[in-house]
Amino acid sequence: MELPRIVEHSPWARIARWNLKQPNVAMVLGKTIHLSGVTREQFLREPSWVAHEMCHIRQVQERGLLRFLWEYLVESARVGYYANRFEVEAREAGARDAAHYAALLAVPLPDGPGRGGSEQASAGHNRPDVVV
User: What pLDDT score was predicted for residue 112?
Assistant: First the structure.
């Protein structure tokens, strides 16, 4: 498996982190994962988070950037971040695919909320993401 480009200390993710008032943010811009408040190594040790962001990259690839952006923004305006179908799908992928990414990344699958098992904890409460 080849990982996408990962940008640490991204100014875009920093803006999102500041707006969301969160300690860390992962954010997909096209085919790149942007991080703020978390290092590449820390991010890659969270297989459910990796799976979540990889789902967003796949969503962008399937629709194309402009179409995805439009659909994501309309959906967010209509139902909010948590109920956004793209976020729901990414949370499900995080839970479903965490063990797969743990094996590929050769990291243990952590126990506890937000580590592939809990919908509530994987909902972005502990580690929000922004997709653009």
Answer: 59
User: 3-state DSSP helix/strand/coil percent for the chain, to nearest 5?
Assistant: 55, 10, 35
User: What is the DSSP code (8-state) at residue 29?
Assistant: E
Token pair 């789902």: residue: 55
Handedness of CA 31, 85, 50, 103 (dihedral sign): negative
Token output for 39: 């290092």
**pLDDT tens digits along 27-53:** 999 999 999 999 999 999 999 999 999
Q: pLDDT tens digit string along 69-118? A: 999 999 999 999 889 999 999 999 999 999 999 999 999 887 655 444 43
Distance CA 41, CA 57 (A): 19
Sequence letter at residue 111: D
Nearest to 49 by CA among 22, 32, 121, 84: 121
Q: Which amino acid is at 23?
A: P
| Helix or strand (DSSP H, E) at 124 | none
Cα separation of 119 and 96, whole Å?
11
